[in-house]
């Protein structure tokens, strides 16, 4: 009887934390989203020394509140899942842990010499932002287009790298250390800056020959930017043009995933069909309201 | 009889101000267009101190002329419409008011301390330029393509933001305050500057590791610019490729809207069909020449 | 008899100068091309003061040689055409004249005070480069795609301008003269520099709010660059996809135009069919070898 | 008997060096790849003076090891081919030689005055990176799209150059030497920097008129970047859209080329069919395992 009661309690919590189709589940997600954004803003504000000097205590309190919140969330996520090891070793499990521990570690390493390492640890919390990616939702056309053109873009980027190494070396020979091209790695860096049309201007050619070669590099970079664009464009046209109906269905599917996302309490499998009764991975019964 | 005469007078004015299918209506539009452009140029010239010192009185007179013109236009627009509240609370009604009042407010706030606020008020007139958007005309393929790809581009821009926050934090840790990366918000700003291939160069990495990460960011930015381009390109191809005939009809429709734009005197509804006799929104009779 | 002989002489010269399907005509074109490129290089070298100081006389002689060559060409072009007024008032006729006279005018204005004006006159010769456009040849897919998307790109560029004026004014209010945003026109200039992702860095925001707005402008600029690209891409796909066969024929036609370009001696009409005997514009007989 | 034995030995070596379908052949390729990358990194590190000062001897030893390795490879490639002259005069043959000799030449030119020339010679080894291109593999869609649009992109780049020369000259006249536009070649260089949206900022217009023209150039550059992108995009869509099945076959073919790449021992011809017994170029028998 007790066990049954506990099971119900676990099941309800699982629904709230892992799913989003109950009012409580939606509320949980919104609170989590706000907490994530607040923690990112806190990490950012803390790095602004003029702000940190004034409101150090306030920031510290805010961080502790969020750390406690994330700790509770982390523990609940472990407790309400049948296979906790699977969650802990999953991508989001590691992100959840990494974004929670730094504040606790700051209690241990309070020595003067550990301050620099401590600072780096605090910044790990910035990775909490990756949790937001969870809300970007399911697989879509965009991801498919990028996936389909990934191999081709890699070849292209590799070609850009080879060109950068060769032109970087030529610029190093032509311009030399006086113009800021002090060594080949720096020249290659400059070449990438130029070819991608970023153009910081911290290093710039001064000799006529160097400026001529720079002009060639720029026009090349201007011309080859067309290549990855053309690839993604074509892949995306293929992906989206194939079937308009599919796109609509996918959209509907997306809504289903976001609003009625069932997550198996046993194996964490997602993307169950709307009318599914059993998990399609482990056969465990799914819990509806 | 008087009322009938007044009605005719109002109807004729309505035609001139809100429509463009009579010679007087066209003239009104051209005069308004010139007045808008003149007011923008006046605001700009006034901000150039060397110009303002010389021709302050001339600029002041010019501004008063345009302010009076816009005031008359604003009053006439209210008078000739049956439901003035609807116009006043509409987007263009607010723009019309906001671009007229600053000069009058400058008469009230003449104290020495109010000068800064006054300056800001004057600049509000720059929003008059949005009235020009009215002449950009009706909905077209372009707007549809942007509308169709808006959701996907938002997801994409959100991904760019997440990447900027993470890479900005890494650069802050690697480069530190000595290279200009004084805090995380500034580092994130630098990361956006770099990823969008703008590259001001006011902040630039100086350490080899920082330059290596910067190169990775640049090549990433260079690669992902292909994504929104591909999306718009594909959406636009779909939108324009679907039917050439539609495009021609739309073009004809555009001309109709611009040249014979009927605007209901009662409810301000636009885009009536060319041969419409009654307003399709309120049933009020439309006035043709 | 004399007149007949003269006619033959004129006809032969017309063939050499205006057409390219005889060995002499081809040679004339190649010589002209080299002369144009040489004149451009001379104008450029003359502006490099360190080079001009050393080789002033050499440059002067070179310029006179080219000026005489262009003068002869200009006179021959007038003489060998039946309607010289039509040639003189045509686009290339004006370019030919403008690129020839500056050197003669430099003989007239030798006074000390006229030196600055003289310098500007010399530079007019740079427009000779536009003659090269003549060799870019006939209308092609590319030009058609640009032509078809011209109207849409104009609307787009106009929207960019409106956004630049509004954001430029906001940046002027936020940053002020201390950061280099001394007046609105300069701020609008900065905004265009940023939105087009050029990013010189001569002016850059320094306040946190200014940098935040700049980030918004950059991401906007980065997003909207997709729009013209998408338009040209779609129009080009439509233009080139419609018929592959047409493209091949066009290519053949291009060759015909370049190699066998018949140009009517009477009315300067071009693009006659390969087997044409009479001009399709004025009915005048065409001269073949 | 001896000759037969030697033939077998040569044939086996040929398989290892020129092909990649035996375990030994694969190992050879991987070792070569690592050696190439190591040599590039060595050249780069050597140029960093702070690194070279510390580890000069270590770098020197590393270079000698790689030089000896490449020498052995070069000799074996000559020995195992029936027509060595063909290999030596081929593109990769020249690259192989050029990337091997600099270290030997450094033994000859050890005089103090030859140091600068020596440095340049050392850097030639950077071209070894081009050997990596060999592993980028066979012809693919990407290359075909670039090939198909090469002519059109050339016309486009030529148009950009003409525009740069004209606008560069105008900027030289407007801004003059005080703003850094000291001569026309430099102005043209600045114009290319601006038009390609690189924007170093080492030279930037300061006069209002100059900034206005710069804004026009930037918007032009921003608009015309769409042209090459559109071309490649359309060509690529055509190339990849024509047949999905072909793409799959091509992929399979690619694998075949990479994994079972047969290279004729007699004439170096590649791309034999998988089941080919005789070379399709010289009729010489191919050697399978």
Automatic annotation (TrEMBL), chains A, B, C, D:
Main localization category: membrane
InterPro entries: Ion_trans_dom, VG_K_chnl, Volt_channel_dom_sf
Membrane protein topology class: Multi-pass membrane protein
Keywords for the protein's UniProt record, in alphabetical order: Ion channel, Ion transport, Membrane, Potassium, Potassium channel, Potassium transport, Transmembrane, Transmembrane helix, Transport, Voltage-gated channel
Span of domain Ion transport: 26-238
Transmembrane segments: 27-45, 57-76, 155-174, 212-234
Cell location: Membrane
A Pfam family the protein falls into: Ion_trans
Record's protein name: Ion transporter
Species for this entry: Winogradskyella poriferorum
